[in-house]
Design a protein that fits this description.
The structure is a single chain. The protein has one domain (about 1-160): Fructose Permease (3-Layer(aba) Sandwich), CATH 3.40.35.10. The chain contains seven helices and nine strands, in the order βαβααβαβαβββαββα. The chain has helices at about 15-25, 35-40, 40-50, 65-70, 85-95, 125-135, 155-160, and strands at about 5-10, 30-35, 55-60, 80-85, 100-105, 115, 120-125, 140-145, 150-155. The chain has a seven-stranded mixed sheet, with helices on both faces. The protein has a two-stranded antiparallel sheet with strand order 6-7. Helix 6 (about 125-135) packs antiparallel against helix 7. InterPro entries: PTS_IIB_sorbose-sp (IPR004720), PTS_IIB_sorbose-sp_sf (IPR036667).
């Protein structure tokens, strides 16, 4: 049976913090990157596969194929760290039946329509609404950049985004 150790949204996907901190923090032995664009870009996908740390398997799947793989228990006996590039991608996977009890938001990038939640985390109203909808359906949503940083609840982040 697949053991999901962490589901994380990070616009950079697999980068130094993920490779060096989060894999160790959650004791994952495999990374699943769920992203339609990356799965379609064979060259860039190969770069991500080669960047895996020793002993850690990396798989890259488009959203619909990742959901289907979980329904078929393709990742059985794996301890997975699952990465999404955006809130939109995580929400789409969840709506298609991806098993998600908890979701960590790490980095979403900056933008003119985003509110800073902390020094390194920003969130738009649209992202907040999607995360809130997922939380209302039973997903525990937290926001945290690194294991050393404090975790924010979605409730606290929503207060910042909505100015309440």
């Amino acid at each position: 049976m697949t053991e999901i150790k962490l589901i994380r949204i990070d616009f950079r996907l697999m980068h130094g913090q993920v490779v060096t901190n989060w894999i160790k923090q959650v004791s994952a032995d495999s990374i699943l990157i769920v992203d339609d664009k990356l799965a379609a870009d064979k060259f860039l996908a190969q770069v991500f596969l080669m960047a895996a740390p020793p002993g850690v398997k990396v798989a890259i799947r488009p959203i619909e194929k990742a959901v289907a793989a979980f329904k078929k228990d393709v990742f059985k006996d794996k301890k997975l760290l699952i990465l999404f590039k955006s809130v939109e991608n995580a929400k789409k996977a969840f709506d298609l039946g991806f098993p998600m009890k908890a979701l960590q938001v790490g980095g979403l990038g900056n933008g003119t329509n985003k509110v800073m939640i902390s020094n390194e985390l920003s969130l738009s109203e649209q992202e907040a609404e999607m995360l809130e909808a997922m939380q209302n359906e039973g997903v525990a949503v937290t926001l945290q950049v690194t294991p050393k940083d404090p975790a924010f609840t979605l409730h606290d982040a929503l207060k910042e985004v909505r100015g309440k």
